[in-house]
Prior knowledge:
This protein is α/β, with parallel strands linked by helices.
Amino acid sequence: MTASAFLPYGRQTIEDDDVAAVAAALRADHLTTGPTVARFETAFAQATGAAHAVACNSGTAALHLAALALDLGPGDGAVVPSATFLATANAVRMTGAEVAFADVDPETGLMTAAALRAALARGKAAGLRMRAAFPVHLNGQLCDMAALAEVAADAKLALVEDACHALGVANVGACAYSAVAAFSTHPVKAIATGEGGVATTSDARLAQRMSELRSHGMVRDAASFEHRDAAFDDGVANPWYYEMPEIGWNYRLPDVLCALGLSQLPKLARFQARRREIAALYDTLLAPLAPVLRPVPHGKAPHGWHLYAVLLDFAALGTTRRRFMEALRAQGIGSQVHYGPVHAQPYYVRRYGALELPGVAAYTGRCLSIPFYPSLSDDDVRRTAKVLADVVAAGGRA
Ligand SMILES: *Cc1c(COP(=O)(O)O)cnc(C)c1O
């Protein structure tokens, strides 16, 4: 890459052995569900400390499978922080349940126990049976799961971790405090399969349910067949026979993509180590730009380092986020906003009315994700920091 190559905010790291793994999968017997799916699931469970992993074709599908397996439905409510991707809230709505949006910490963007309690009270006041909460490990920084679990235990809520930003943090996926953790293997995430996702759980029954729901709700286990006459001939199960006790989806992750995931997984530790190095370099290089530009505060706790986000005081700079992003882009630096407030989307405003969440407004109004992925060189990082310093010095203009 030349020094002036455009740097996006995120990108996949695909190496020659990944390409070879996919090519081999293309020549194998199964393009869709074959033996590689189970191998990928086993490896993913091992990598995350999970008892069970269910591969599916997106992080959104993983969240939806979790919501379905918990039997969320009409009349139920689930708490979702509004500073997240659309999919976290949509997964709840896709079951017919309603979303109670939670506020977040204005500095970290994370849902706190107090914010969970407030959203819970709002949901109950709206007449919903509050059944679940979906904490989001935004940017890779972990929510205080112990504190959230305490609130959840009092209110009899199931927790589903949106861990799409936190793959690679030790024991995220082991579900010590949650029913399910949902991961994405979209290209900008920690490892890539193109589209893809995984739901992990320590509950064998939830795992079984999610794997059935991922494939049309089909059951092939003869012991659980309901229609005995159709299922058996002289006590022997008919070989073509399957049953659908409840409706499911086609959320399967094909063998070809599982082969890519299997090739990527062993690289996770290396990718994460490089992400930590880059984050430390940014921390140092950007420190002089405070207080108008500050990295999202992150402390010493384990961090998934999915995104490197900074908080900007656009008013003090005398500019807008659009102009600031355009000034970066003019110098070859990509950036992105993660995220706009989900509760302010037209669909949700029409459904729930306007809602004031000051922490969400403060965080989502100031955040900006800058180039951050394992294949960035130290020079790329230094160039990005220099452009940021120049644009800040120029009052946020090109
Ligand atoms: C990427 C992402 C999702 C959805 O994942 P897809 O694989 O794109 O469906 C959900 N939540 C968060 C926080 C994400 O970053």
